[in-house]
Design goal:
Low-confidence stretches of chain B: 1-6
Structural class of chain B: alpha+beta
Largest interface: A-B, 27 and 30 residues
Shape of chain B: globular
Number of strands of chain B: 17
Largest sheet of chain A: 8 strands, mixed
CATH class of the largest domain in chain B: Alpha Beta
Number of strands of chain A: 8
Distance between the termini of chain B: 30 Å
Mean pLDDT of chain B: 95
Order of helices and strands of chain A: HEEEHEHEHEHEEH
CATH superfamily of chain A: Class II aldolase/adducin N-terminal domain
CATH topology of the largest domain in chain B: Aldehyde Ferredoxin Oxidoreductase,  A, domain 1
Number of helices of chain A: 6
CATH superfamily of the largest domain in chain B: Aldehyde ferredoxin oxidoreductase, N-terminal domain
Oligomer: heterodimer
CATH architecture of the largest domain in chain B: 4-Layer Sandwich
CATH architecture of chain A: 3-Layer(aba) Sandwich
Helix content of chain B: 40-55%
Mean pLDDT of chain A: 94
Number of domains of chain A: 1
Number of domains of chain B: 3
Strand order of the largest sheet of chain B: 2-1-6-3-4-5
Strand content of chain B: 5-15%
Radius of gyration of chain A: 17 Å
Low-confidence stretches of chain A: none
Strand order of the largest sheet of chain A: 3-2-1-4-8-7-6-5
Shape of chain A: globular
Radius of gyration of chain B: 22 Å
Structural class of chain A: alpha+beta
Helix content of chain A: 25-40%
Strand content of chain A: 15-25%
């Protein structure tokens, strides 16, 4: 399991989806969670950076767990997720500042994401407010964007959640570039207007 | 989920006691439909609630429950299926199997959520159900006919009917006899055909129309989700190319290359003649036509022919069971033995695996004059002997565990809970070992198939030789399999679709939002009810195991060389992740959370 955390953490950093100490990841094992350590560098994870903590109940390891443990717990308690990846990708954050939902215009993003809701909260890091908001959306969408902060992606495996995160940032980059041309986007997909109702 | 506006459930089932001929229409309470969906889930609930764990499998009181699901016949992708549930005569466990074709759609159109059959006819009969009611008709003229002839005769008697029938194997009580419906699709495993035969019922014929038509509550949304789901199926190379082009036999070379193709009764995990029995060879030498169940875009079924015969299949599992498992590389012999099984109405996996067991017993000298590995010429004769229960065939007709035990070597029966293992050697894919050991119906790949993440990389490739860390993923797959079997959809859709698609389909059909998590919770409930049935029937954690060979004998050669299944730590992790105690019994809080504590108590299962 440590291998998966290390390889995906490294990829997240190299791909520019997080800053040096940004982001966090976890997996669910029954009623336990393995989550990255608060302040750990996902690009350089070691065994001591993976914290084992209860899904529902706290123990001493809460002193070491990621700041976002409250959000991860809430997501696991309300969805079928077995893995969560949270990152701070720049194009996605930029798009979240000007939209209430992000509908991909590229093919890969359309296939995998259909639509990404943008959720707003006053306190965005490790907040009970976010823990109350996000799971409701993640019941229907595998990736939800927290405005100005970053996406939370879920899956059965870390790699799945990582893939969605990567695709989402690429989608936002394409969207930003296409908008920057100042020209109207030519539609190539049948029924794309329905993605907003996905 | 509010059923008030839901169209996919009829809210009623048909119960028939064939001893007395008494027929009743019984209500299905909305909370039961909400909690168990239909198909397998509804069957499991009724079998536990009716205390079928106390009933001998071949006794008249053992009910055969036929049930389509809420998506059957709606136009959802690959949703033309139905389940049959009963206590298995082969395993003694709770059991269900499902089949495609058109029979499930026909029952749905007649306006029933299930058909519940108990009792025993005084003489061979068939059950005719139409829009105006049901009746038992004499089947003396059908008794003894093989499956294709029975189906053909019934079509003459009742044009355009859909029929589910048994062959001679079911009539004679072969413990792994199947139920077969039109289009050559079978409820193959566990001997539910023998349960039907014990009731003296040759066929259940659906003729007529009850007037039901699919009416998705949100038609526009339903069409959109179907469009998107079909897009996923058509863009996935397995569902759009591999299965349509080669059928399930495409897996022969895939598993062999991975060192996970069980060979000669699991003595080896690489078959040197795999290419001769591969999907590619089947397509080149025998396939005449691709076929599909109603409403399916995948089309994994084959019509095939040899020089002298033609028919359906064989599927991958069949090619393996009658081929690699027995050390046979003669594809024509395999195809023809498959036809013989289909005509007799027998599960090809258990047939082949039991013959493979006999071959090993012969090789080690525990069986005098028996068949030997690689003897293709004996295969056809053996299959016919099993179907007719003639001589040696009568012993084989009991399945591998009873057969091997009778010859002093139960450890050579490659089975779990009495059901023969299918075509994946878990020493080359460790998660599959845990899947076999914990399966509620015994050694089976359809309760959860770790082939997806361990070999095919779906949803992502994981280390197939690793042990720990797989329980969560497996449990999710087991719960999802319960959902698919209850909705009722083909499991191949899960090669390209995730659970949110199924939730969106049901939401659009019912008009009420169903979340993916809610669906998986329903799956967990169904799995737990099945577990409770087995516990009440006397099964325990001791039965959650694998044949000794897979635990103790390292693979001698190939990609899995040196590997065994280290089951104990995987099982411990599994119980924890399930919320069960170390004895494999669900905890009281878990039962309460799933809403089945009352069922457990009524069944006499003591939770802690």
């Amino acid at each position: 399991m440590i291998d998966q955390f290390q390889s995906i953490g490294r990829d997240l950093f190299v791909a520019g989806l997080i800053s040096s100490h940004g982001g966090n990841m976890s997996v669910r094992m029954g009623d336990r969670i393995l989550i990255t350590r608060r302040g750990s560098m996902l690009g350089r994870l070691e065994e001591r950076d993976i914290i084992d903590i209860g899904l529902d109940e706290n123990d001493a390891n809460v002193t070491l767990a990621s700041t976002e443990i409250v959000v991860h717990r809430a997501i696991y308690q309300s969805t079928a997720a077995l893995a969560i990846v949270h990152t701070h990708p720049p194009y996605a954050i930029a798009q979240s500042l000007v939209r209430d939902e992000i509908v991909p215009i590229d093919s890969e993003g359309s296939y995998l994401l259909h639509k990404v809701p943008v959720v707003s909260a006053e306190l965005t890091a490790g907040s009970v407010e976010v823990a109350g908001l996000l799971p409701q959306w993640l019941k229907e969408y595998d990736l939800v964007m927290l405005r100005g902060h970053g996406p939370f992606a879920i899956g059965h495996l870390l790699e799945e959640a990582y893939q969605l995160t990567s695709v989402f940032e690429t989608t936002c980059k394409i969207l930003t570039i296409a908008e920057g041309t100042g020209r109207a986007v030519k539609e190539y997909r049948k029924g794309s207007e329905r993605y907003e109702s996905w | 989920m509010n059923l008030a506006s839901a169209s996919p459930w009829h809210g009623k089932g048909l119960r028939i006691d064939v001893t007395t001929g008494v027929t009743t229409v019984a209500a299905v309470p909305p909370d039961v439909s909400r909690a168990y969906l239909g198909g397998r889930g509804l069957g499991a609930y009724m079998l536990l609630a009716e205390r079928v764990f106390e009933i001998e499998p071949l006794a008249p009181q053992n009910p055969l429950i036929f049930a389509p699901g809420p998506l059957t016949g709606t136009g959802a992708p690959a949703a033309g299926r139905y389940s049959v549930s009963a206590r298995s005569p082969l395993t003694g466990t709770i059991f269900d199997g499902n089949s495609g074709g058109g029979w499930g759609n026909a029952l749905k159109h007649l306006g029933y959520d299930y058909l519940h059959v108990t009792g025993r006819c005084a003489t061979p009969s068939y059950l005719l159900i139409g829009g105006g009611g049901s009746e038992l008709r004499p089947a003396a003229a059908l008794w003894g006919l093989d499956v294709p002839d029975t189906l053909a005769r019934l079509r003459e008697l009742h044009p355009k009917c859909e029929a589910a029938v048994i062959g001679p194997a079911g009539e004679r009580g072969v413990l792994f006899a199947s139920i077969v419906n039109n289009r050559g699709r079978s409820v193959g495993r566990g001997g539910l055909g023998a349960v039907m035969g014990a009731k003296n019922i040759k066929a259940i014929v659906l003729a007529g129309d009850g007037g039901w038509r699919p009416h998705p509550a949100d038609k526009e949304r339903f069409d959109f989700v179907v469009y998107e789901a079909t897009k996923m199926l058509k863009s996935n190379p397995i569902t759009s190319q591999g299965l349509p082009e080669f059928g399930t036999a495409v897996l022969v070379n895939v598993l062999n290359q991975a060192g996970a193709l069980p060979t000669r009764n699991f003595r080896e995990s690489v078959f040197e003649l795999a290419e001769q029995i591969s999907g590619e060879t089947l397509r080149r030498d025998h396939t005449t036509k691709r076929a599909a169940c109603r409403g399916c875009s995948i089309g994994c079924a084959r019509r095939t022919a040899t020089a002298g015969e033609s028919g359906d299949g064989p599927e991958y599992e069949t090619i393996w069971a009658l081929g690699a498992s027995c050390g046979i590389g003669d594809l024509t012999a395999i195809v023809e033995a498959n036809y013989a099984c289909n005509r007799a109405g027998m599960d090809t996996i258990t047939t082949g695996a039991t013959i493979a067991c006999a071959m090993e017993l012969t090789e080690i000298g525990a069986l005098k004059g028996g068949p030997r590995f690689g003897d293709a010429s004996a295969m056809r004769e053996l299959v016919d002997a099993v179907a007719s229960r003639d001589g040696f065939g009568d012993e084989l007709a009991q399945g591998s565990l009873r057969f091997a035990a009778a010859h002093g070597h139960p450890e050579l029966a490659m089975q779990v809970k009495g059901l023969e293992l299918p075509a994946y050697d878990p020493r080359g894919m460790k998660g599959q070992g845990l899947a076999y050991a914990t399966s509620n119906r015994g050694g089976c790949h359809l309760r959860a198939n770790m082939l997806y993440p361990e070999i095919l990389g779906i949803p992502k490739m994981i280390d197939r030789f690793a042990t720990l860390g797989k329980a969560g993923l497996l449990i999710n797959m087991q719960n999802l399999a319960c959902v698919l079997d209850s909705l009722s959809l083909c499991k191949f859709t899960a090669l390209a679709m995730k659970e949110d698609y199924y939730a969106r389909l049901l939401s659009a059909v019912s008009g009420e939002t169903v979340e993916p998590q809610e669906l998986l919770r329903i799956g967990e409930r169904i799995w737990t009810v099945e577990r409770l049935f087995n516990l009440a029937a006397g099964f325990s954690a001791v039965d959650d195991t694998l044949p000794p060979r897979l635990l103790n004998e390292p693979v001698a050669a190939g990609p899995a060389k040196g590997h065994v299944v280290d089951l104990a730590p995987m099982l411990a992790e599994y119980y924890i992740c399930r919320g069960w105690n170390a004895a494999g019994v669900p905890s009281r809080p878990k039962l309460e959370a799933l809403g089945v504590a009352g069922l457990a108590e009524a069944a006499g299962v003591e939770a802690q």
